[in-house]
Amino acid sequence: MEIIRTSDLKKNYTLGKVDVQALNGVDSSIEQGEFIAIMGPSGCGKSTFLNLIGMLDTPTSGDIYIDGRDVTKMNGSARAEYRLKHIGFIFQFFNLFNELTAIENVMFPMMLNKQPDHKERAKELLNIVGLGDRLHHLPSELSGGQQQRVTIARSLANSPKILLADEPTGNLDTRSSVEIIELFRKLNLEQGQTIVMVTHSPEIGGKADRIIHFRDGKVMEG
Amino acid sequence: MSVDLRSALFYSKRDIFKNKKIFIFITLSIIFATANIIAVNALMDGMIYDFVDNTVESSIGHLNIYPDDNERFIDGLGLKEQRLDGLNEVEAYSSRLSASGVLSYKELSAPIVILALDPEKETKVTELLQKLDRGAVINSNDKNTILVSYRLAEDLKLDVGDEADLAFENGDVKIYSVKGIVRTGDKDFDSSTVIMPMNEANRQLAIDNSASVILVRLSDKELAGTYKPVLMRELEVNNVRTWEEETGFLLSFADAWKGFTAVISSVGLIAAAISVGIVIYINVLHKKRQIGIMKAIGAKDSFIFAVFIIEAALFGVIGVSIGNVVGYLVTRYMEAHPFYDAIMQTWISARFGYYLFYNATIVSFTVTILAGVYPAIKASRVDIIKAIWGR
Ligand SMILES: Nc1ncnc2c1ncn2[C@@H]1O[C@H](COP(=O)(O)OP(=O)(O)OP(=O)(O)O)[C@@H](O)[C@H]1O
Ligand SMILES: [Mg+2]
């Protein structure tokens, strides 16, 4: 079943007098339960694409369907609600709320979603990412890899349909990177999580089910 | 628009307690501002009420009868007093006569106001004669004794038992012995008054059957307004003023002072509000990325707004509560320990009233919340993409 589809997706930025075409007509289709890697040279529009399908930004033109629903027409507060319930985000670094402990970071989206058993579920999720013994540590008391794992636990809090990760291992050493990817694979296999991940590393991209190559704001065919 | 206030409160609490120093600094400034409002207003109230009370207690009746325009005295006093005796609601009255003179003791002398009255009658209307600093009260039939007001006695270095020369308007001079010193707290009164029995003044001034004012005590002071026309008709007098009319000027004067006080307290309050505003604003600037992330994971703009308004409210609740306690303690201390004001030459003590809590709380809390509004709006408008990718 198709979960994400974009058609002729375009995004232009104006920088002073110059028009930058970050995305130049992207057609894509991602199936439910796929683990996708997005690769391509710097500046080719990978982050822009992820922001659009994650509903953090609106396209200049084109359509985005998530779960069969055209999401480009939704207003700001409906989009926030949709992100809360259906999309999980992992950025390259500084994802966590500094003043909250690991467990509080994971609880937070569930509190926003008024989920009653948020504490138990947060513990469970931190156990899944292997941080059951770091519940009450602040982000500053965790390593970069551990912080990313807390972020992953948090992104899973409201059982989203889709996990979006923009260079989640970009700041990590090889060993931590491998751990993160293995965690993604595990979630994908055990929970059928759809994952879309941007990466520069061919090795990490190689672990995905499929790689979508971007170049100059377009998807490369073949 | 439903905002999840529980989650917002949860985050706000963590955020404001994170930096202890800033938290203490901000809270202290609100505490100070709130306590300041209470203490300064209590002090003002103390001054005003002492002033008004002193005046009312020692020189005003419920109704006050004055001479007709362009007349110095109320004439036909005997007849008027008879009629007063016949009025139901009149409980007591005291006729007073004022004249000027000069009091001398050794090398010192000072212009004075002679206040002649019947001590027995006066006592039933005002508390003037209870305000004896030392010595004893004069009697109606005393011929050689006077009471001297506190500041006047000080100026002339007079004390109880001393004998002073009193020169009347008509040039006659007589020696009187000082029987007591009165101190009302009313500055004008205390600085220049000599009290003597009415009979003696009548003899010396060769005035009879006249008064400068008649102070009337009614069975209930709330009757003053309705009873005034009755009195005017029955006594055939034109100038009657109620106690409210007499103090109205004092109270409006007091209002002007209170306006001044409000300006003083608002300076502290504005300083506190600016610190709250700046601290929250800087916090917002520092947290842009985190605000972006919070929005990315699904927090609405209204939620972000609530987070920062709640931060201001938390500072407010804590600062205002402690500020109220501090203000209360300071005020009670000032009540118990009056201090002498050399300029006004009176003792100043605070006067606590529960309304002060109410005022200080409403004002401080509102101002603190208002200080949080701009930063909170700023935070709610953070652009997700710019915040997260630093563009
Ligand atoms: N907010 C913006 N304003 C102006 N130009 C932008 C903005 N965001 C992206 N761009 C431009 O759009 C293009 C695509 O940017 P994007 O961040 O999507 O690239 P990317 O593939 O993620 O690159 P990288 O691998 O370096 O992260 C770039 O040329 C970038 O300069
Ligand atoms: Mg990028």
Summarize this structure as a short list of keywords or feature phrases.
heterodimer, A: 222 residues, alpha/beta, Rossmann fold, six-stranded mixed beta sheet, 7 helices, B: 391 residues, alpha+beta, 2 domains, two-stranded antiparallel sheet, 12 strands, binds adenosine-5'-triphosphate, binds magnesium ion
Question: How would you sum up this structure, described in words?
Answer:
The complex is a heterodimer of chains A (222) and B (391). Chain A is of the alpha/beta class and 222 residues long. Chain A has one domain (33-59, 73-221): Rossmann fold (3-Layer(aba) Sandwich). Chain A is built from 7 helices and 10 strands. Chain A has helices at 46-53, 76-86, 102-112, 118-128, 144-155, 174-191, 202-205; strands at 2-15, 18-31, 35-39, 61-66, 69-70, 87-90, 162-166, 194-198, 210-215, 218-219. In chain A, the strands form 2 sheets. Chain A has a 6-stranded mixed sheet with strand order 6-7-8-3-9-10, with helices on both faces. Chain A has a 4-stranded antiparallel sheet with strand order 2-1-4-5, covered by helices on one side. The radius of gyration of chain A is 17 Å and the shape is globular. Chain A starts with a strand and ends with a strand. Chain B is built from 13 helices and 12 strands. The two termini of chain B are 30 Å apart. The mean pLDDT of chain B is 90. In chain B, strand 6 (163-168) and strand 7 (173-182) form a beta hairpin. Chain B folds into 2 domains: 2-56 and 249-388, no CATH class; 63-243, no CATH class. Helix content of chain B is 58%, strand content 19%. In chain B, helix 11 (301-336) runs antiparallel to helix 12. Chain B is elongated, with a radius of gyration of 32 Å. Chain B is of the alpha+beta class. Chain B has a 6-stranded mixed β-barrel, surrounded by 4 helices. In chain B, strands 11-12 form a two-stranded antiparallel sheet. Magnesium ion binds next to helix 1 of chain A. The site of adenosine-5'-triphosphate (ATP) has 11 residues of chain A, from strand 1, strand 2 and helix 1.
